[in-house]
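Troubleshooting entry. The earlier prediction with BES gave an output that would not parse, so I re-checked the input for stray whitespace and re-submitted. Clean input:
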Amino acid sequence: MKTNASPESFFEVSADLAVIARFEDQAPSATETAVDERLQGALGKTLERIRFKGKPRQVASLDTLGQLPFETIIVIGLGKKDAVGPAGLRDAGAIAVKEALTRHYASITVDGLLLTADETGQLVLGCRLGSYTFDEFQAAPEDGPKPTITTVNVTGSSLTDVTLARMEAIADGVCLSRKLINEPANVCTPERLAALAVEISKAPGFTVDIWDRQQIIDKGFGGLTAVSQGAAVEPRFIHMSYTPVNGTSEPAIALVGKGITFDAGGLCIKPAKGMADMYIDMGGSAAVMGAMQTVAKTQPARAVHGIVGACENMTGADAYRPSDILTMYSGKTVEVLNTDAEGRLVLADAIAYAREFNPECIIDLATLTGACMVGLGPNYAGLFTDHEDLSDRLLGAAKRAEECLWRLPLDKKLGESIKSKRADITNLGGPYGGAITAAQFLQNFSGDTPWAHIDIAGPTMASKDDGYIKAGGTGFAVMTLVEFIGD
Ligand code: BES
Ligand code: ZN
Ligand code: ZN
């Protein structure tokens, strides 16, 4: 899909579908009025008939019967002007794409007259995210290939090429993340993640280090070693490092992702029902890879590390056991009480490793606990940090990106439930607050580095299409991370 900020006026660009936005409490744009005039009032009549109010996601459509340089014109409601945010605009873009695709159209013109450059940017981002599909493992439909959108032109907007390029880069990051989540475990292996890291790291300012199983053992990554040892599939520890080419005086941001490419639960095996979804257990690493992909393209002023511990959690003859005591990369020992609480073991090593680079902060992302989904529902990610400033910045970034993030407490009393009689700590808390005790386990490895943990077990996967969000992997957190990193 090509996106352009077009210098021509709305009526000068021919396209299959034309899109006009309307706020609920505002008069129609001059473009809409002009369209209505050219169609002798037919648009106004249509809007009246369907009682179009400009409510969020409300759509009116009209065929132009050759009277305008578009086959069809649609008006999309954005809701009240002071209530519309980035997500609503992305939804509008996705709706436009859906309207075009159902008509087998290929090109779209968007009237940007009522919108700011940033708002138009979000709408274009929504076009990209709304046209994402995961169908590479499916045969083409019998009646020919599926329709695709080739061009989105924006007219009448102050949208610049810089903003457009940034939106493209963000769309690429989110779509990469979605793709990795959607790929099954026999395709998206740790080796695949590592190969992709090498690919991303060809961009200016990047270096990449990758360790294989023997090197992971030799490095002393006790958590990753243990979790991966029941799997025939090779583990990888991945470290992408980006330093802005023109130098930065600020310390880096370290992003750490859980990359369990399949979580069978290990010897504490999951029931069949819960297991089949566990190809998404690398959602944290998908967020990190997606964000790094965007970083590679936007070349921000901040240095960023992208660190991923990747392996499968299986039941092979060499599998780690409940009761094993692991010596972690940090030197701390962990008594394994449940092999299905594997993510925290892999992350613990990656967090301890990240500290060596003296980052300004460490943010880890993980599909860590079912408990977080139980507590917050499927749409919200849980944020855990004892660092107020980091919390404010992350919640601010999530708000600007309009991704759902909710802070949960690191309750010290509850944290005592991961004390161990046989080692420093155990990998299993009590029956309550499982998302909290999982976070507190990780906190043990963050030392004095400002650290935040984001449990994305819920929002990594969507059960159905919903605006710019598509059923399956969502690419959740990429946009928040990109906002957090800044320009
Ligand atoms: N990968 C799962 C968590 C998960 C569950 C992610 C559902 C996405 C959807 C994690 O490794 C796990 O199995 N956690 C256990 C922890 C328990 C054994 C302490 C859980 O949540 O039940
Ligand atoms: Zn697990
Ligand atoms: Zn897991």
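This one parsed fine. The pocket of BES (ligand 1) is lined by residues 263, 281, 338, 340-343, 367-371, 428, 434, 457 (CB under 6 Å).
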